[in-house]
Design a protein that fits this description.
alpha+beta; five-stranded mixed beta sheet; Heat Shock Protein 90; Ribosomal Protein S5, domain 2
């Protein structure tokens, strides 16, 4: 359920606050300056350390502990990591690395184990020889997980001795203790997320599986055993890939269910000395690129210098080779970056001693020397590959040339669309009922299925901040179409014009005209089809809108249940039956065949009123899983789609159609 202050009231409050600061703001004195000690800062502002307190942040706690074990793997000491979701929904991570030393830290006078799990910016990754390659370079991961856990128990086996300590919400709960001699080595950490911090504290096995599989691919030879021992959810998987990132590329292309342009995977490596770079590439016949990058096994979602070097070198090498074999003439324009990346699946992995990330969540690599490292590797090795494999090289060039022709067609279609808009004296679509508010963070655009529902939505909306765009014609399945087809589709062009931020190489989120884009379709199979077509479009051509939380799904009711003057709405069969029982069993239930059957007042109070409506925010928790789902559901292959539907039908809502 989403609550929202009336927009005019919101604006008035804003202006009043500027004119009349509160007494607290007036009394800005020494006592207002507060120092957050130790892990208190983490609990006060968890988003600064793990990004979010939603499901993504919950799983990030596990990643931080596993990353410490992976650091041991990259040091050549650890070869096995166990990750277990326990019956009480706590998680245990155990490795066979060196373990944490059991002595007293000379700098703090505290047990070293306690320092690692209670002090920010502590650990063996600050240049004193503990680790040469590590992802956890800020030394806060273990302490952050401890701070955001209801409790944590740590056991370390180091130099033949076993030690333990227990914490509660970041504070020592059971003192550091020597437990006896042992022939084991490594660290075992068990923790339970704090419900005071997280919106959801139930772990998703599949989310963890995807991350652990990723780590197994990136660290060839390591064994990661993921287990779930919760009642009725018992399962386990051993992840072990000797092929490393080449196996990862093969796995990703298998998920896409596409034909591969060339049979072999192009693998290149700079050498064993640090810094080192690995790149694996294979092209498929889809229109989408998948480029995933890592630095010290940390996913760099926002890319960085290693991706910049990769993209620059790929474009240069393919253009040079295309001209060498005569595919590009002297007068032809060069292939663009988009052209040479169409249909590519690539994994880039960097290992280095002093990785510079832009935040604790390590979303972007900043080391300038890495661009040169990757560019030199690609220029040398990819050129060699084309020389030694001319047949594959020619197929890749043909793929890029086809993409170039389509891009040129898209450019012409885009310019034609712009010229038409100018002739019509407006850059906004004619059917758009715009809102009065111009600040995008306060506005909403409803994409409504059909003119009938669009009419009801226009009459029922709050025109101060809600805009309505009825969809016309059939929405294009962009999974099977290049960009030129998008610019000629009569359902998508009005959406692109209304949003104002462009698509493809023209996309600029700063020009987005609406803070919320809400897909409102009928609560039936046809409505579901329209939703998935629009989500495919946003995922493939405007993914930033999803990543930044701008895309929502409206939830219209299925039934109107009434007895006399009492009227209630049900969103599924179970709610309908419950309401009928609540009203004494004599109530009548009317099934809505579509949004167009609802009058403006009903549509407002059930689906559009911010005080009572329910909106589902579209989020990407796992980009690879999303990519796979769209490829299967919207691609050309029938058999994978049939299997997907059979395996996931149990999760579908009963529509009673």
């Amino acid at each position: 359920m989403e609550n929202r202050i009336d927009v005019n009231e919101d604006l008035a409050l804003e202006e009043k606050a500027l004119e009349n600061p509160s007494s607290e703001e007036k009394n800005y004195e020494d006592e207002q300056i507060r120092v957050l000690e130790g892990l208190e800062a983490v609990r006060k502002r968890p988003g600064m350390y793990i990004g979010t307190t939603s499901i993504g942040g919950l799983h990030h706690l596990v990643y931080e502990i596993v990353d410490n074990a992976i650091d041991e793997v990259q040091s050549g000491i650890c070869d096995t990591v166990f990750v277990t979701i326990n019956a009480d929904n706590s998680v245990t991570v155990q490795d066979n690395g060196r373990g944490i030393p059991g002595g007293i830290n000379p700098q703090t006078g505290l047990p070293t184990l306690e320092v690692v799990y209670t002090k920010l910016h502590s650990g063996g990754k600050f240049g004193d020889g503990g680790y040469k390659v590590a992802g956890g370079l800020h030394g806060v991961g273990a302490a952050v997980t401890n701070a955001l856990s209801e409790w944590m128990e740590v056991e370390t086996c180091h130099s033949g001795k076993r030690y333990t300590e227990r914490f509660a919400r970041g504070q020592v709960d059971r003192e550091f203790a020597f437990e006896g001699e042992t022939d084991q080595h490594g660290v075992k950490v068990t923790f339970k997320p704090d419900p005071e911090i997280f919106e959801e504290t139930v772990f998703d096995y599949d989310i963890l599986l995807n991350r652990m599989r990723e780590q197994a691919f990136l660290n060839a030879g390591v064994k990661i055993i993921l287990s779930d021992v919760r009642p009725e959810m018992e399962r386990s998987e051993e992840l072990h890939y000797e092929g490393g990132i080449a196996s990862y590329v093969d796995y990703l292309n298998t998920l896409k269910h596409c034909e591969r342009i060339h049979p072999d995977i192009i693998y290149m490596r700079s050498g064993l000395d640090l810094p080192s770079a690995e790149v694996a590439i294979q092209y498929n016949d889809s229109y989408n690129e998948t480029v995933i990058s890592f630095a010290n096994s940390m996913t760099t979602i926002e890319g960085g210098t290693h991706e910049t070097g990769f993209r620059a070198a790929l474009t240069k090498v393919l253009n040079d080779y295309a001209r060498k074999i005569g595919a590009l003439k002297a007068t032809d324009k060069n292939l663009s970056g988009e052209d040479v990346r169409e249909g590519i699946t690539a994994v880039i992995s960097i290992k280095m001693e002093d990785a510079q990330f832009e935040s604790q969540t390590k979303s972007k690599l900043g080391n300038s020397e890495i661009r040169t490292l990757v560019e030199n590797l690609m220029n040398r090795k990819l050129t060699e590959y084309f020389e030694e494999n001319p047949a594959s090289g020619k197929l890749i060039i043909e793929k890029a040339l086809a993409a170039s022709r389509a891009r040129e067609a898209a450019r012409k279609a885009r310019e034609l669309t712009r010229r038409k808009s100018v002739l019509e004296s407006s850059t906004l679509p004619g059917k758009l009922a715009d809102c009065q508010e111009r600040r995008s963070e306060l506005t909403e655009l409803y994409l409504v299925e059909g003119d009938s529902a669009g009419g009801s939505a226009k009459d029922g909306r709050d025109s101060r901040f809600q805009a309505i765009l009825p969809l016309r014609g059939k929405v294009l399945n962009v999974e099977k179409s290049r960009l030129d087809k998008v610019y000629s589709n009569q359902s998508l062009i009005p959406i692109i014009q209304a949003l104002g931020c462009g698509i493809g190489e023209d996309f600029n989120i700063e020009k987005l005209r609406y803070g919320k884009i809400i897909i409102m379709a009928d609560a039936d199979v046809d409505g579901s089809h329209i939703r998935i077509l629009l989500l495919t479009f946003f995922f493939r051509h405007m993914r930033k809108l999803i990543e930044d939380g701008h895309i929502y799904l409206a939830q219209p009711p299925l039934y109107k249940v009434h007895r006399g003057k009492i009227v209630k709405y049900a969103f599924n069969e179970a709610e309908k039956d419950a309401i009928i029982a609540e009203l004494g069993g004599s109530a009548e239930a009317e099934r809505y065949k579509g949004l167009g059957e609802m009058d403006p007042e009903q549509l407002w109070e059930t689906t559009m009123d911010p005080t009572y409506r329910t909106l589902l925010k579209v989020e990407i928790n796992d980009a690879i899983a999303c990519d796979e789902a769209f490829s299967i559901l919207m691609g050309d292959q029938v058999e994978p789609r049939r299997l997907f539907i059979e395996q996931n039908a149990k999760f579908a809502t009963n529509l009673d159609i």
